TrEMBL record:
Residues 19-270 form the GH16 domain. It comes from the Bacteria. Gene3D superfamilies: 2.60.120.200. Pfam families: Glyco_hydro_16 (PF00722). Keywords: Signal. The keyword Signal applies. It comes from Thiorhodococcus fuscus. This is Family 16 glycosylhydrolase. Transmembrane segments: none annotated. Belongs to the glycosyl hydrolase 16 family.
Length: 279
């Protein structure tokens, strides 16, 4: 067989493998119940204000701030004159309960529409210490990596953003890997936001439309610490270094981030549902 025909055959086999491969859900929350988020899938974080990003809210476990109703997770930011921060909201994560290295992470979300809100669906590593302490930041970040599947700030409600952070590429270095897409009704209806994360790349989607892709450049963990298990975070902040850039519309609060479902899938061969494809 000639080299040209051999290479063509390899390409064809690769194409067939990709076509046959599919995503298989291995962890999810469909929010088809009523009450607090499922404790077998979510941790509710309780934080004081200004712990990160100069955000103004307290994160609480109060059902006024976080609950499941009408088939959706509700994360609600409120004005609370009795709270030291004046604002309360919620942040939940799946650390130790739902995580993966590689896969498709997807959520169907409806965002708030108020100046001063800052919503996010994002991923952090289960072991942030793997790539060491960062003296400048006073923590393991951004050495550990961060994957922002989607962020939305209320002063620009029709634009959503995706970003990837690492030691060698983040905003303080002036080279943050990020992109955005306009979704005119992001605050009026639900849309599907996802990342497909493989060993050598990440691709970000809105309603299955790809708008941002990042490649592993092979230059070490400083650029690509994304070879370990990451878990899901959902939160709605008030104010902060980005969300509060144009002030806060107090009259527009309370505001809700609504999540119809969260799903984590692995890349699998549908003819052998117990076996993942080689990545």
């Amino acid at each position: 067989m000639s080299r040209a025909r051999y290479l063509l055959l390899l390409c064809c086999l690769s194409f067939v493998s990709t076509v046959l491969a599919d995503w298989r859900v291995v962890w999810s929350d469909e929010f088809d119940y009523v009450g607090p988020p499922d404790a077998n899938k979510w941790n509710i974080e309780t934080w004081p204000p200004r712990r990160v990003n100069n955000e103004l809210q307290s994160y609480t476990a109060d059902p006024e701030n976080v609950r499941v109703e009408n088939g959706s997770l509700v994360i609600e930011a409120r004005v609370d004159p009795d709270d030291d921060s004046m604002f309360t909201s919620a942040r939940i994560n799946s650390r130790g309960l739902g995580a993966s290295a590689y896969g498709r992470f997807e959520a169907r979300i409806r965002f708030p529409d108020a100046r001063g809100t800052w919503s996010a669906f994002w991923l952090m590593p289960s072991d942030p210490s793997l790539y060491g302490w960062n003296e400048e930041e006073g923590w393991y970040w951004p050495n550990c990596g961060e994957i922002d599947i989607v962020e939305q700030v209320g002063f620009e409600p029709e634009v959503v953003h995706a970003s990837v952070h690492s030691k060698a590429a983040y905003f303080k270095n002036g080279n943050q890997r990020t992109d955005q897409i306009e979704i005119a009704d992001a605050a009026d209806t639900y849309h599907r936001y996802a990342v497909e994360w493989l060993e050598d790349s990440m691709e970000f989607f809105v309603d299955d439309e790809s708008f941002f892709r990042v490649e592993n450049n092979g230059e070490g963990w400083e650029w690509w610490p994304f070879d370990q298990e990451f878990y899901v975070i959902l939160n709605l902040a008030v104010g902060g270094s980005w969300g509060g850039r144009e002030g806060i519309d107090l009259d527009a609060l309370p505001q809700r981030m609504l999540v119809d479902y969260v799903r984590l899938s692995e890349y699998s061969d549908p003819d052998d549902p117990e076996a993942d494809l080689e990545r």
